[in-house]
Specification:
Strand content of chain A: 25-35%
Largest sheet of chain B: 5 strands, parallel
Order of helices and strands of chain A: HHEHEEHEEEEEE
Strand content of chain B: 15-25%
Oligomer: heterodimer
Order of helices and strands of chain B: EHEHEEEEEEEHEHEHEEEEEEHEEEHHH
Strand order of the largest sheet of chain B: 3-2-1-7-20
Helix content of chain A: 10-25%
CATH class of the largest domain in chain B: Alpha Beta
Radius of gyration of chain B: 21 Å
CATH architecture of the largest domain in chain B: 3-Layer(bba) Sandwich
Largest sheet of chain A: 7 strands, antiparallel
Shape of chain A: globular
Number of helices of chain A: 4
Number of strands of chain A: 9
Number of strands of chain B: 20
CATH superfamily of the largest domain in chain B: FAD/NAD(P)-binding domain
Distance between the termini of chain A: 35 Å
Bound molecules: flavin-adenine dinucleotide, iron/sulfur cluster
Number of domains of chain B: 2
Radius of gyration of chain A: 15 Å
Distance between the termini of chain B: 36 Å
Structural class of chain B: alpha/beta
Shape of chain B: globular
């Protein structure tokens, strides 16, 4: 149970993914499963693809067709609950929010971790973006098979 | 007649906004805080806030403080006096306030007072809870985020409400390994997104589990946790030892009502509000005319609601001073609607329950 573990079950994860054929283009995946009083994702989205609505407690709903994969919501969400993903050939390319130091180097090979923080494979860091408001975003490419499991990277601070 | 027109005690989000509205209404305001700067709990919040744009969502707590201070200066017109590093130590029956600054003691005689003193952190009883290395979560935040000091290297977090989850995340950001988050209840108390954020970093969260004892000679060297049965009793044999040098307690906050108690205003025990809280009328006035309360001291909740309550208390306090406010009614209505919206979700069920108890409409 999500409320006991803090980790979403596979069924819930699937429910927030569009059909994988849509993912030839980058799309936002919103893992905000609980009704909380929050809506910066809606405010941040330039295309109006995210709707929370008048009741700020409602869960955000994504209009997949309207989402351009611009990544704005990724760093605007205070819950770090949004990432952008696309499938490029045999790779799943993720852009995830990241607030730890050190940041990885572009081009580095890093471990990719699942929702429990367990390493499940490796990935190549393609882009590291620092933002004025201090949440960075990291774009990494990993095995396509990890589409529903990968959520972050593990950077050695050695 | 008092010597001060309006005194606001506490410069957290609630007090800052109460002062803001009083200034807008043309009153002279004295804003007092025992801390060296304004901001209250906001000073420690390096994370982004929830809520909506009008409540500064997605802006970090520390940045919200700067914006507020700026707004005060702009509208102050020389009518704002700030007394920081000043503690209000007494609130007398005649309405006088006893203030202490650097061992200097003086009295103020305000016409209206807005009490926005916030809340204090609770603790839990366990063997070894007096060892150095056992901290309240807020104290750990102060160390790390204000003073830049690392409290230790390996930590146990007790409590999985939003504060426990956020401070655990901040510990990880500061390079302190959080070995475990334990929660006595059968569900994680805070928002799912905060919990998921922490799990993603590999931090385990265990429900129905609590700390049994902390041990160490001169300082915490480890902690024992154990599982709880359905009655909340520790299960013998389920103990597990963790090697930690820091035990962080995030087991809730209680309204800081000491000053109000000195005045003997009516209070009530409302567990949903965090404990003993002042009884307020619909204008945020206590049973003592001219004394208002808002924010965590009235009901332990959120900065977003504290800001709105602060504005409402400020407007009503200005009304008590017979200060005219343009479009007062519309303003109050809009703020009350905003409060209701903030409190309308499942995450605020306890607040609504508390409000029903005190007879306000939720
Ligand atoms: C870790 C953590 C994370 C949080 N995250 C969020 C969030 O994401 N979103 C959100 O909306 N809320 C959040 N909150 C809650 C929010 O910070 C509080 O609800 C809010 O600060 C309450 O505002 P306040 O003005 O009532 O009290 P406070 O901010 O506590 O301010 C009270 C002030 O009064 C002063 N004071 C007290 N007694 C005296 C005295 N006798 N004399 C002089 N001064 C005195 C104190 O020094 C303090 O500055 C969080 C809280 C914590 C601890
Ligand atoms: S990625 Fe861009 S377009 Fe898509 S939902 Fe996020 S902000 Fe909107
Ligand atoms: S900003 Fe993030 S946490 Fe807030 S509603 Fe949107 S997805 Fe959820």
């Amino acid at each position: 149970m999500l409320k006991e573990t803090g980790v979403a079950e596979p069924r819930m994860i699937r429910s927030v993914f569009p059909d994988s054929r849509v993912l030839v283009k980058p799309k936002a995946i919103i893992e905000c499963y609980e009704a909380i009083p929050c809506d910066p994702c809606e405010t941040a989205c330039p295309t109006g693809a995210i709707e929370v609505g008048a009741d700020i407690n409602a869960r955000p709903v994504l209009d997949v067709d309207a989402c351009t994969g611009c990544r704005r919501c990724v760093t605007a969400c205070p819950g770090l609950a949004i990432f952008v993903v696309s499938i490029q050939e045999d790779k799943a390319v993720f852009t995830v929010p990241y607030e730890m130091l050190p940041l990885p180097e572009e081009g580095a090979l890093v471990n990719v971790a699942d929702r429990c923080g367990q390493p499940i494979g490796t990935g190549e860091v393609r882009k590291v973006r620092k933002h004025a408001d201090r949440t960075a975003s990291i774009t990494f490419a990993t095995d396509k098979g990890l589409l529903y499991e990968a959520v972050t990277v593990v950077v050695d601070d050695g | 007649m008092g010597t001060e027109e309006a005194v606001v005690i506490g410069a957290g989000p609630a007090g800052l906004f109460a002062a803001y509205e009083l200034l807008l209404a043309g009153a002279d305001v004295t804003l007092i805080d025992r801390a060296a700067q304004a901001g209250g709990q906001l000073v420690k919040q390096t994370h982004k806030f929830f809520g909506s744009k009008e409540h500064y969502a997605s802006i970090r707590g520390i940045d919200i403080r700067h914006r507020l201070e700026h707004a005060l200066e702009k509208n102050g017109d020389g009518r704002l006096r700030t007394l920081y590093s000043t503690t209000v130590a007494g609130f007398y029956a005649d309405g006088a306030l006893a203030c202490v600054k650097a061992e200097r003691y003086y009295r103020l005689h305000p016409e209206v007072v807005v009490v926005a003193t916030g809340a204090s952190e609770r603790t839990v009883a366990f063997a070894g809870n007096d060892l150095p290395g056992v901290y309240a979560a807020g104290a750990v935040q102060t160390l790390m985020n204000e003073q830049g000091i690392r409290p230790g290297n390996r930590a146990l977090m007790v409590g999985s409400g939003n504060i426990g989850l956020i401070v655990a995340y901040q510990l990880m950001q500061a390079g302190i390994q959080v070995e475990r988050v334990v929660e006595a209840a059968d569900e994680i108390g805070g928002y799912q997104v905060h919990a998921s954020k922490l799990r993603r970093l590999g931090v385990p969260i265990e429900t129905k589990t609590t700390i049994k004892r902390a041990f160490g000679t001169n300082q915490v060297e480890g902690a024992e946790i154990w599982r709880l049965d359905a009655k909340g009793e520790g299960i013998a044999g389920s103990e597990e030892r963790l090697t930690v040098d820091t035990v962080c307690l995030a087991v809730g906050l209680s309204p800081l009502v000491e000053l109000l108690s000195q005045l003997s205003v009516d209070t009530r025990f409302i567990p949903e509000f965090g404990g003993v809280a002042p009884v307020l009328d619909e204008t945020y006035m206590t049973s003592r005319p001219g004394v208002f309360a808002c924010g965590d001291v009235a009901n332990v909740e959120e900065a977003s609601t504290a800001m709105v309550e602060g504005r409402l208390a400020g407007i009503h306090a200005a009304g008590y001073l017979n200060r005219q406010i343009p479009r007062r009614k519309e303003k109050i209505q809009a703020l009350e609607t905003s409060l209701r919206t903030l409190r309308s979700g499942p995450a605020s069920e306890h607040v609504r329950k508390g409000l029903r108890k005190v007879g306000e409409h939720a």
